Structures are given as structure tokens and as C-alpha cells.
Amino acid sequence: xxxxxxxxxxxYARAVEEAAAAATAAAAAAAACDSSLSHNAxxxxxxxxxxxxxxxxxxxxxxxxCRKRPPGIASHSSSSPSEGSRTxxxxxxxxxxxxxxxxAAAVPAAAVPAAVAVPAKQCNRDHSKVLTTDDVLCRVPKxxxxxxxLANQAYGEMAVNWALLLLPMLERLGHGDRAVIAGMxxxxxxxxxxxxxxxxxxxxxxxxxxxxxxxxSMDGFRWKNGAFRAYGVTKAEVVLWLLRAGRDxxxxxxxxxxxxxxxxxxxxxxxxxxxxxxxxxxxxxxADRSPRKSNVRNCGHxxxxxxxxxxxxxxxxxxxxxxxxxxMEEWRDTMAExxxxxxxxxxxxxxxxxxxxxxxxxxxxxxRRFYPLKPASEDGRVVYDGNGSRRIxxxxxxxxxxxxxxxxxxxxxxxxxxxxxxxxxxGWPKNPAKYWRLxxxxxxxxxxxxxxxxxxxxxxxxxxxxPPERHEPAPARAGNxxxxxxxxxxxxxxxxxxxxxxxxxxxxxxxxxxARALGRQLVMPRMACLxxxxxxxxxxxxxxxxxxxSTPVPHVCPLESVxxxxxxxxxxxxxxxxxxxxxxxxxxxxxxxxxxLPFTPADTTAVRWLAEAPPHGRPPPQGPRQVWLEKxxxxxxxxxxxxxxxxxxxxxxxxxxxxxxxxxFESAAESKLFKEAISGDxxxxxxxxxxxxxxxxxxxTFKFKRPLPLPSGVEARGPRTVVDLPDKRECYWQSSPCxx
Length: 740
Fold this sequence. Notes:
With about 750 residues, this protein is α/β, with parallel strands linked by helices. Helix content is about 30%, strand content about 10%. Strands 3-2-1-4-7-6-9-8 form an 8-stranded mixed beta sheet, sandwiched between helices. The protein has a 6-stranded parallel beta sheet with strand order 16-13-12-20-17-18, with helices on one face. Strand 8 and strand 9 form a beta hairpin.
């Protein structure tokens, strides 16, 4: 399936390439125009605007008024550009004033031309070999947007997925040549070329010699500070190369899933030299960029803000302007100057040079200059950095969406997201939880879901009325947080959450057994939860939502908030049972491949449970697309009952509930395998725990209730009443009481 998906993308790309004609007039004009970095940002904007299909002639940008403005930091008493930085009118471009006198948005470098740009035929599109830097510049016209990511072999599958999502999207716009993967090691390059993806090597930029300097640390280099910072230097070199060549740049991490093109975003903030995602988690607060001092955590990006701005460097855009080049050079040099294993990565160093956080050395004054934020555009959505001359836009979290916004707050609905950036996801090694989040989003084409099997789904336990946020008075702190008992007394939501997830676990245990008995793949449930989890108790309690986040209560629980996904993977890796994401049956999220049919209500047979066994000799009532079964049947009895009801061939069987319905396996061998899958894989290690009421994590962790063991042999037979859960909660930390 992986090769099929890649082949489809490659075939489409080749079709576009073969149909390519000469470059459009706009592209030719852009190439002819002098984009020398000696001109200021507005001059470059003039050049971009007039070379993107405008009816006005292309200006040379050689006017004296368009020369680079004098050095110095201008006053920010208004939102006007600093002295010496001219408007487009001063360069003779089309007026940006509307009839009402307000300034209209200029067309940025990355705007989609009216006629789809077709790349020149002579550019190299042989993806079986490494592209040269000249090849890339040929494929991306001057003034246009180049899409780049960096990856090595260890994260190669993520990079392939990045490309499989982005390339078809760009190809539909005639921009399929404008994305490239920069491979950081030879095995990574070989992988990308094997799948015919546009690839350059980081050696092309005189950057880090990854194959030698960091041999042995390429796998987990994210957790090696020096190596990861060297990666940041290399990333900066790639961006600088493109900017100096007159190309705008989109740089994104491999754990980014592209959903929609960013051109409208760029068009909306023509004043910005740099655009960056953030770590804000409050969608409505972030949407309001009106001037004000007050903030919520990590969301202080509006003009007038006096604290808590924070940029995430996983998704960034740079315009080919002197200010962006200046910022990128400073960022690169800052990272390169740090030696050893100092805990400063590319993101922290970027925030230090912008001034969002305090720093020592040459960046120290920037914190004082950055706050309060000064508007660099009339609408205040672009602000000056701490240097006072570079303009930056914090991209709304509704457009560059973290996994928290996308999955927890939006229930895996794209809404206005341009990209899904897999931040705020727990788990390691190599974060298998990120792969599961991509599966839930229907954005893992590198591992397509099958549509040709038989499936089992079920309705999970549902929360009752949402409890109040807290009981008063607040308990006294115990060291670095609260005891688990004090936290339960203080937070009724936490108590209700534990009880709800106890039921979720028991229902999933039963559904796994029934799916195994019926030979079906299991569609995981949409788990509703009442409390998030976090290592910092003060950031979570008593309200049970992360500090500053616009999390709904209840919300959809990510799989890793309850289970260790690396362990859960073993259930299908060992061939015991295949698990599918809870969104799998939604054809708007998981579109079937060619030749496969989407799921419809007619595909589903509902399984309903009889409260008690029917009178002797009287069969349970059946009906169209529904089956009535008795509770407490063994696996073998369930298989026989489904067959007798004529439902064995149903494409999807859906259990109306999975609580107290499964009796176990009569077979001793099957019972042993089932116990290993549940105890070792689903619930082993730190899986099925909640953290934390205290920074003393063992003492501040709850253990969700483990379902009671199911019998085997004749004792598994029913019908019978099955009790899933014990009365008392087992303590995670033996010295701590864990119940009220």
C-alpha cells in the first residue's frame, strides 16, 4: 500500500511535468526583475506585487527612494513603517489606498497567480537522483514560495508522509515543483530517492557533515542538545540559501501534516517579514488581536502585550527581504556560538533573539524592547521584534494548529487549519503517538488504512453532567503539589474523570476480546474525558484543563492520555488484533482508495444486548441490520450466535455497549494470549495512569482500575452477569492512599 500511494503521487507529478509549457509571463517577469538585497522590504514588496500578474508594469526598484533605509531603530509610537522604509506608492507601484482611504493588502510573493504557473520544461525532474541547488532554483521561480523540510533516515517515514500530503496539494495549483526534502544522512537520502521524492542533501549548503560529525547520534538527535542545535544551524543555512536567491521560504518540521495551501495567509499580512506558529492553546483569545496588555499563557502576541509571547519554530515563513535575511543570519550565528550540551535549542534561541524571553549577552536588551509589543501594521497583526526593525506575524492557532487544538479542542476536524503540527503529544521512542494522531486525522498516507476487511466498533461509556470545577476551600500544598486524596477532594472533575476512564478501559478490554473472537479488526472508540493530564499540577488543577487552553469539557481524549501507545502498538505488531482509529468509519476524514466503497449505514449491523436470558426455547428477537445477543457469552458462544443470526458477513458490526458483556475465552491457549495482550500491551508499564497532582510524580500519579480477570474453560460460558471492575482503586505509589 505504501508503494501504491507513492506511485500515485509520482504518476500525477509526471503528468503535470509532461504537460508543462514555457514559464508564465509572471514568472519570467519575476526572473528578470532585479531582487537585489540592497533594496528595502517595501521595495521588494513592490517588485513582488508587480511581478505577480499585476496589470501595472514591473518596476526596476532602482529609485533612490527605494534604497535600503539608514540604520537605526525607529520610533514605534504609531503603526507606520519606520523612517526610510517607503510605502509601495513611493516606488511608483499601484496605489494601496482604497476609496475610504484605508490601506489595502498588497499581493505577497506567495500569492497564487490568476493563471496557474507552469514550470519550464528544461528543469530537472529526475527524482531518482539528488537535485542540485541549481535544479531547485530552476523549479521555484524567483519571488515564489519554496517548501522545505529537513530529515534523516530515522525520521524518514515522517518526511515521506510530509511529502505525500504536500505534493498533491501543490500539484493541483501547478506548484508541484516547489517542495523539497533536505536529507541529512545518506540512508535518509536513499530512502527519499527510492520513493522518487524531490531531494537535496544538507551537504549542498556547507552545513553540518551529519554522516561524520554526528555518527551514532542520528536516531535520537532530538534529545542530544548539541546535535539538535547543529540541526538548527543547518536548517538556517538552507533557508538563507533560498532567501539570498530571491525565493520566499516555508520551512516546516517533518511532524507537520499539510492540509491547505498557505497563500491566503501570506496575502493577509503583506507587512510581515517573518511568520511563525506559536504555542498558544486558546483559540478565541488568539483570534482577537486588538491592542491590550492582558494575556493568557503563551498567547501574548497582540500589540500592547506585556508578557507571554512564544513562537514555535516548527512552521515558519520567510519573505526574501533584507530584514528576514538579517534575522536568519543572526539566528544561525546565535545557535552556532553555543557549544557543548547547553540546553538551548533552535526554538529557544529564536525566542531569545526576538525578545519574547529574557537572555544574557547580546540578546539581553531585546526582551526590554520587545515588550510591550509594538504594531508594525495598521491592524496590529504584525509586530516588531526586539531589534526594532524586523516585522513578525504570529500565525493564528486556528491556522497552524497544534495537535491539542486539532484533536482535543476540534475533535480531529480540520476547520480552518492549514497545517497540523504534532506538538503537545506525549510518548516516545520516536513518538508513536504522533503516528496515531495522524491516523485519527486521516493524514497518514504513508500507512493507508484498509477498507477491505470486516470491522467491529462500539459505543463507549458516556460522561454524565459536567461536575463543578472545584470544591472550596482549596487544600494546602504538600511539597511540590497536592496529595492525591487532597486533589480528589478539591477537583470533582478529576474524580469523575477517573471513574469514567475506568469504564473506558473495561469496555475496550471487552471489545478487544469480542473482535478477536469474531475475527474482526477493532475500530477504537471516541473517548470522551473530563480531565487533561500534565506534569505540572498547578497548570491543571483544579479545573482539569491546561492553563490557558480553550479545552472543552468534556473533550475527546487522545489515546496517549490514557495508554502507552508504544505498548498498544504491540497488539497489532504481534498479529493479535488490528486496531483502527476512531475516525475510521467517517468517509469525510478517511476517503477510500480507488475501487473501494465508503462506509454507509447500510454496512453496519447493530448488536444489542438482552438484559436477561430469554425464556427457555424462545430465540432472541432479530431485525434488519440488528442482532440481539445475551450478555456474558464466551468468545466461542458469541461466534456461534452471530453466525446463527446471519450477521457473520456484515461489513461493520457495532456494539451498543461493551460494558459487562464479555465472558472470556473457553480455550486455554486463547485465554492466555488475551491476558498477555491486555495486561502486558494495553495496560503494562505506565499505561492506564493519570499524572500528576504533584511534581513528585510517583506520589502524584493515579492508577486507573484494572478490569477483573475473566475466566476460561467452561466458567467463561454464559449467559451470565459479568462484573468488569473492582470496588477499590489500586494505588500507584504504595505509601500514598489513593481513595477518598
